[in-house]
Amino acid sequence: MGCFLYAAPNDATMDLFRQQRAVIALAIGGAVLAAAPAAPAAEPSTTRSVAASAPAAFPMAMDSGTRFVRERAQARRDISRAEAELSVATGRQQGIQAQVDTLSAEMARLDVEAQAASAQVAAAQLRVAALAATAYKQAGGGQIDATIEAARSAEDVLDLSWSMRIIEGSGDYALDVFLWHDTMHKGLVEELAAVTQQRADAQDDLDAAIAHEADMRELRDSARARLAAAQDGIASFHRAARTAGSPILGPSLLSAGDLAAFVRARGGTPQLSVSLEALAQIYIEESAAVGVRGDVAWAQSILETGWFEFTKSMVDPEDNNFAGVGACDTCKGGFSFPDARSGVRAQMQLLRVYVDDGVGRESLGKPLLLPGTLRLSFRGDVQSWWDLTGTWATANTYGNRVYDLYNRMVAAS
């Protein structure tokens, strides 16, 4: 790829590099992914000197940034799910609690009515028993005694006749009253039993709802703790990622606004098919989609395109090629992409392919735009921005110069 801030390698290095490029050219179908000697840096007076020596080893695992991003994403998903289920669980719990309260009140009412009905049954039963005793006396010859007693208490003939009829019919009436009260009592007892069972079932549902709500609260709290730990890990990753020896993969530190502002502050005239701000946002989105550090890739593109002005570049602004993809010292030009997003996506996918030898044609969520790169022999050996020297560009300070620009962006943000 074309490299601004170019440092010419010696003859031995160039011979080795050309051999590597020949292998790569065959791998991707003739498009040599090498860097052609490019124009000097756009700002030679302010560009700091970067040593060609390899940077110190990254102090964390090379996949730590990716792991923290993955853990952060999972924690956020768990929080979202737990909070959504908590809302439902809380509403369900409140509904079941209201049901339990209603059934409890119904049980209390039925219990009072059943006790009252039981008392009425007992009283009716006593009346029936008393009348049964009277009837027994009558059946045993006591009818005269009952008649005499009725006659004694009667004031006249009509009253005597009425008393006799009461004595004869009162047994049937008392029995009917008893049976009515007994039926009512039994009905209340059965209803009370049914409501008691309904309340027991509702209480079981309430207990389950309370337990589920507690589980969701625990999941939410655990996810919040995991989110905090992942964010702390990402912060540690960014503090450690100070040199080109840091990983290509991982989270971006800077925002799209930071990226655009850094280029704007230079005061140049970017030649783009979209606004600078829109392009910066595409970098953040497309890099996150494949796990590449998009803000460092933006620094790479500043280096490759001369601050997106494409002066003395092997690709033209209309190519939407922001990383010199396909450009080489023996090529007429690099690859051309139909729009800015495709160009950024190709760059991000290619960086991921360099690092991850497990990437396939359809494993990145979007189809691989340069599937021929899957045959690159050094895939998996490239892990840091420093490792892009000799694989992405010929300049022996390529990774350091990319990272120098990135560090300047961080300082300016």
Rg to the nearest angstrom?
45 Å
Give me the secondary-structure category: mainly alpha
Q: State the separation between the terminal residues, measured CA to CA.
A: 28 Å
Shape field: rod-shaped
The biggest sheet, with number of strands, parallel, antiparallel or mixed sense and barrel status, is: none
| Poorly predicted regions | 2-51
| Average of the residue pLDDT scores | 83
Number of strands: 0
* Percent range of helical residues: 55-70%
Order of helices and strands: HHHHHHHH
Number of helices: 8
Beta-strand residue percentage: under 5%
Walk me through the structure.
This protein starts with 10 loop residues before the first helix and ends with a helix. It has helices spanning 11-27, 64-153, 157-240, 256-266, 276-290, 294-305, 340-355, 398-412. With 413 residues, the chain is an all-alpha fold. It is built from eight helices and no strands. Mean pLDDT is 83; it is low at 2-51. The longest helix is centred in the first third of the chain and has 90 residues, at 64-153. Helices cover 63% and strands 0% of the residues.
